[in-house]
Amino acid sequence: MVYPVIWRNNSVSLIDQTRLPNEYTVVEIHRSEDMAQAITTMIVRGAPAIGVAAAYGMYLGAREIETSEIQEFLTKLETVANLLRSTRPTAVNLFWAIGRMMKTAYETVGTVAEIKQVLLETAQKINAEDLQTCQAIGDHGLAALPQTPDQLIILTHCNAGALATAGYGTALGVVRSAWKEGRLARVFADETRPRLQGAKLTAWECVQEGIPVTVITDNMAAHCMKQGLIDAVVVGADRIAANGDTANKIGTYSLAIVAKAHNIPFFVAAPLSTVDFELIDGSQIPIEERHPREIYQIGETVLTPPGVEFYNPAFDVTPADLITAIITENGAFLPGDLLKGELPKLT
After folding, report:
1. What is the β-pairing status of strands 5-8 and 11-15?
2. Is pTM beyond 0.85 here?
C-alpha cells in the first residue's frame, strides 16, 4: 500500500510526487510554512490528500505558536489557516479540513497545550477516516460498475489513487476493489497533460500492485471508445457542487462528453467532504490557474517558441447530466440526489 501522508517522528512524511516515477523520495515537513509550500508545489496533491496534509499543517502551525493565552493562540492559528487556505483554491477538502481543525480549536476546553494535543489527534483522525472512506468508496464503486462484461476495462484521468488520498484512492479505489474481486481486465490511464499525473502517478501505482495498465494520451480517448476498448470511465473530483456538477483535473469535461457520445457510463468517485453544498452549481467553483511553465516545459526541455502566450487552468467542470453516478463512502448517488441525501438504486 502507498501512503502519501504519514505522521511519524513528530513530523509529517510526504511522498514527493513531483519526483515520481523515476525517484521515490520522502520529504519531512516540520513547519506550517513548509506544508503550505508542499501543497502549492504539488509535492502532495489530490483533494483528499491535500485535506489530510492541511490538517497536519494546522497542527504544525499550532505547535509553533508560543503563548499561553488562548485568545492570542486562536488569533495566530487563524493566520496559519489563512496561509494554508491560499495554497490551492479549487480543492474543497482543503477548506473542509482547515475548518474542522479551527472548529476543534475553538471548541476544546483546556489550556493551549491541551488544545494543541487535541489538534494533533484530530489531524490523525482525519487521516484514518479518509483511508476508511476510500475503502468504502471502492466497495460501493464495485457495486455500481456495469455487470457486463465479467472483466471490465476502466479508463481513468489524472491520479485519484492512493497518492491522492490517505491511501487506497477514490477512482483507483474502485479500480483496486474491482481488481481484487476479479472484475478488472485492465486500466487505461489518460496521460493527463500538462503535469502528466496519469502517465507518472496512476501508471506507477498500478505497476506497484501488478494491475495491468495502458497509458494513452488524452486525445486518444475517443478513438479507444469507438474501438470498443473502454467499458466504463471512473474519475476523481476536487469539488462537487450541490447539483452534482463536478470540478476535476482539466480534460475531464471533454472525456465525459466523449463517454456520453459512446454510451459509456461515466462515474465520479469522491468522499462526501468533496461536496460543497454551499455552491448551487459548477459555475460557482473557483478554477485554479497555474504557471504556464507546466505547458511550455517538461523537465529542462522547452517545447514552445518565444513570444507565445499561455492559458493554464488546472481544472474544468463536468455538468451533472454527463455523470452516471457519484460514488461516495455512503453509496452511489445520482448527481441530482446529492441534496436529498438519498441512495437510489442504480439501474
Report:
1. antiparallel
2. yes
